[in-house]
């Protein structure tokens, strides 16, 4: 057993499979390996150089396979492995999945076969047909795919300066259309080795070398980004105006590339100048920027208060003012006023007012009520409910037309509210007292008392007015209510008429020896719906 262990230790590790050919198209490279390996070992060989088994999603990849096989027989592993227990012949990939973890493809070229199950992988033949195969069985070789974000073009041909290329995955040759990053180009005639790498300043991939400066101008312009010249037989690069040579002596960059300016850099020939944004000024180090106190530099910037900010300033207003369109205006008390219609600012507060046809409510200054200063005014009617409203002290005129409804003034003086004299006003009334009396509230008068308790002769002292309840406010009456009142008055008149007739008949009943003849009753209308009855009786002897 010990001898077997020693023997295994002395055996060399199997040599790594080398690619037999490769081709690069833009940012994708494909390589062919002729090595009899099972699927898993072939996949691991591709991954060692950052690739994976080849995916064939279009006819472009199929053309690359045809170029790599060059009519050579055999079967090569593709990057397809069965992801389901059994194949699904109706599907484009038959249930297989790419080694990249997806099933996306615009192309498939399967060899006809029935349904199969188990560990199955896919190979491709010289006829470019796909065929299922057990993953543990070795194939004749495999195809690898390498993807890169960018590439270098092949060097332009120059007389007597052929180039030999080597890719990072080990392929050598001179017929590449593009080379991935990390590839090298050997030019034996110049003893020059170039490398495809990122250029300084983020300019993408370029051919270059570790040694700064240009190489002979006849090969790719000496590697110069600008122009190449060989004064005295020594190649050198130069850049256009506004740019300067980079550290490698070949690339061109703005003088501001890598400049320490905090805000802005402005090229100035082969050098640069730092500049700052508005509200800042250049610090003594000529590269950083520091804030400028705008309020101190320009005192009149703001109408009231100026507050300096980083890189600028801010205008503010004093207490009691607010900013309105860039100006400080006094704060209006009407913003929070509860006025129903209109509001105006007055010293120390606000005042509510009403639109035409309305007046301020006497007890609630923020409310507006209907108002009329004539004996007749148009009513305010609702288009939705078809109800009409009148100001206080007015009632709807039943004789109004359908087009216009009017409100008529109530004559409160006919209602006997005043003790002495009364003056009717639109929507209201005023009481007046006779001589020797004084008005103690809206309706009642009180005699003016003298010092000896007498009447109004001599000096007198006014009594303290005693408040009394005012007349009830007239509410708006519905037309139906007015009809009911009228009917009630009519019924009362009829009842009074019947009672009078009954009393007259009883009075005129003839005694035993006498007979009476009654005259016709006379009616006289006094005031508003007031009816009286008078009877005359004439005695007639039997």
Key phrases:
disordered C terminus, mainly beta, 5 helices, disordered N terminus, five-stranded antiparallel beta sheet, Mannose-Binding Protein A, Chain A, 46 strands, 542 residues, single chain, Laminin
Mind telling me the C-alpha Rg?
Answer: 58 Å
What CATH calls the topology of the domain at 21-147 is: Mannose-Binding Protein A, Chain A
The CATH class assignment of the domain at 21-147 is Alpha Beta
Structural class: mainly beta
Keywords: Disulfide bond, EGF-like domain, Glycoprotein, Lectin, Membrane, Phosphoprotein, Proteoglycan, Repeat, Signal, Transmembrane, Transmembrane helix
Protein name: Thrombomodulin
Signal peptide: 1-17
Main location: membrane
Structure description:
The protein is mostly beta strands and 542 residues long. Among the domains are: 21-147, Roll (Mannose-Binding Protein A, Chain A); 152-253, no CATH class; 294-329, Laminin (Ribbon); 479-541, no CATH class. Helices cover 11% and strands 33% of the residues. The protein contains five helices and 46 strands. Strands 1, 2, 3, 4, 5, 6, 7 and 8 form an eight-stranded mixed beta sheet that branches. Strands 11-10-13-14-15 form a five-stranded antiparallel beta sheet, with no helix packed on it. It has a three-stranded antiparallel beta sheet with strand order 32-36-35, with no helix packed on it. The longest helix is centred in the C-terminal third of the chain and has 29 residues, at 479-507. The radius of gyration is 58 Å and the shape is elongated. The protein starts with a helix and ends with a strand. It is found in: Membrane. It holds the Pfam family EGF_Tme5. It is a single-pass type I membrane protein.
């Amino acid at each position: 057993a010990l001898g077997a262990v020693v023997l295994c230790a002395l055996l060399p590790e199997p040599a790594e499979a080398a690619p037999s050919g490769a081709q690069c198209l833009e940012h994708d490279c494909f390589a062919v390996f002729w090595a009899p390996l099972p699927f898993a070992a072939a996949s691991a060989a591709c991954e060692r150089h950052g690739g994976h088994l080849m995916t064939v999603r279009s006819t472009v990849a199929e053309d690359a396979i045809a170029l790599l096989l060059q009519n050579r027989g055999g079967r090569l592993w593709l990057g397809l492995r069965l992801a389901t227990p059994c194949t699904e012949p109706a599907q484009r990939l038959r249930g297989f999945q790419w080694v990249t973890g997806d099933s996306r493809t615009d192309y498939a070229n399967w060899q006809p076969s029935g349904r199969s199950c188990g560990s199955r992988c896919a190979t491709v033949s010289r006829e470019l047909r796909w065929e299922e195969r057990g993953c543990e069985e070795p194939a004749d070789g495999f195809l690898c795919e390498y993807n890169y974000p960018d590439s270098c073009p092949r060097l332009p041909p120059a007389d007597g300066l052929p180039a030999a290329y080597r890719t990072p995955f080990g392929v050598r040759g001179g017929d590449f259309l593009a080379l991935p990053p990390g590839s090298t180009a050997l030019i034996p005639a110049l003893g020059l080795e170039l490398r495809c790498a990122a250029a300084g300043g983020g300019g993408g991939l370029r051919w270059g070398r570790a040694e700064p400066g240009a190489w002979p101008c006849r090969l790719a312009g000496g590697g110069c980004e600008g122009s190449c010249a060989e004064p005295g037989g020594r190649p050198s690069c130069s850049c256009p105006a506004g740019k300067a040579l980079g550290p490698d002596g070949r690339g061109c960059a703005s003088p501001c590339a890598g400049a320490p300016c905090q805000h802005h850099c402005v090229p100035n020939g082969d050098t640069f100048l730092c500049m700052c944004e508005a509200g800042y000024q250049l610090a003594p180090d000529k590269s950083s920027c520091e804030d400028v106190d705008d309020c101190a530099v320009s005192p009149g910037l703001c109408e009231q208060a100026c507050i300096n900010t980083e890189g600028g300033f801010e205008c503010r207003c004093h207490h009691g003012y607010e900013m309105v369109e860039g100006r400080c205006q006094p704060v209006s008390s009407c913003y929070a006023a509860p006025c129903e219609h209109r509001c105006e600012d007055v010293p120390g507060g606000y005042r509510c007012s009403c639109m035409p046809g309305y007046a301020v409510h006497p007890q609630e200054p923020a409310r507006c009520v209907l108002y009329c200063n004539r004996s007749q005014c148009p009513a305010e009617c609702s288009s939705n409910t078809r109800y009409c409203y009148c100001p206080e002290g007015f009632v709807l005129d039943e004789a109004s037309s359908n087009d216009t409804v009017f409100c008529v003034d109530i004559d409160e003086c006919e209602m006997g509210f005043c003790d002495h004299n009364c003056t009717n006003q639109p929507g209201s009334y005023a009481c007046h007292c006779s001589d020797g009396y004084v008005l103690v509230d809206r309706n009642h008068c009180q005699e003016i008392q003298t010092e000896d308790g007498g009447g109004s002769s001599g000096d007198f002292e006014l009594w303290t007015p005693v408040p009394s309840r005012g007349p009830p406010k007239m509410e708006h009456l519905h037309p139906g209510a007015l009809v009911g009142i009228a009917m009630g008055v009519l019924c009362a008149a009829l009842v009074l008429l019947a009672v009078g007739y009954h009393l007259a008949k009883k009075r005129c009943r003839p005694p035993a020896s006498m007979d009476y003849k009654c005259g016709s009753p006379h009616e006289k209308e006094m005031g508003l719906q007031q009816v009286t009855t008078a009877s005359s009786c004439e005695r007639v002897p039997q």
